[in-house]
């Protein structure tokens, strides 16, 4: 990723410890991430299934240590 430096060997910040509903994980958060994607030239999310997939991907990144199979 150009313009981004990563510190190899740094302790990971994610996934977060998770023991129940997180009040920060809101529809507004998903909308904000979708807006960032559009700002980078990705298509707008139109289908309900696209919104659900983005929400699931964020939840996996934030809270789960399992990898997503591409």
Overall mean pLDDT stands at 85
**Which spans of ≥5 residues are poorly predicted at pLDDT below 50?**
none
The first-to-last residue Cα distance is 19 Å
**Total strands:** 0
* Cα-atom radius of gyration: 14 Å
- In which range does the helix fraction lie? 40-55%
Count of separate DSSP helical elements: 2
Residue fraction in strands: under 5%
Estimate the global geometry from the Cα principal axes. Answer: flat
- SSE class: mainly alpha
Order of helices and strands: HH
**Major sheet: size, sense and barrel closure?**
none
Could you characterize what this model shows?
With 70 residues, this protein is mostly helical. It is 41% helix and 0% strand. It has two helices and no strands. The longest helix is centred in the C-terminal third of the chain and has 16 residues, at 48-63. The mean pLDDT is 85.
